[in-house]
Amino acid sequence: MSNIYFFSGPCGCGKSTLANAFAKHLVNKEGKKQVYLIHGDDFHAGFVETDDKGDFFLNGQAADALMWEDILKFNWDCILTVARKVLERGLDVVIDYVIEEELPLVQKLAAEFDAKLYYVVLTASEDAIRERITQRGDVDMIERALFLKNKLDNLPENQGHLLDNTGKTVEQEVELLAAGQIDSFEITEK
Question: Is 3 within 8 Å of 109 (Cβ atoms)?
């Protein structure tokens, strides 16, 4: 039986950092031969846009650019397609990306492969999020990150899946999950 470990949360909560460290833990400590790691933002980063958008906008959108909704759908199609290919090979998959309304898509994928789904929604204090985003130079993302924090912290389906990592190192987070807490994040209904 394969496992899906999905790390969600707002920008600045350390999804990618924890996903990397947890995947390494699965291989080095849990004795998995391989796991496959998917960073959802890698698909978004594939859309390269001009630095000078001044003359290219039509109705507030770059003339040949996809709308955000289309990019989001594309990203999810890519994430699910790659995860499906990994699960077909009997491997575990670790994914990090923001889940807003897409949890049923991931649950459907888990059910399709009779895989265990572990769903962790990282959160942190507003001050910690501001500080982390400022340190990485993405201050334009602070408002969006705080909006997502509020939304994700309050979604009913996220209750019981929130992991506040304020003041924790990634090593402490992995240790916490490895010490059996990951089981409390399993979604059993498929």
Answer: no
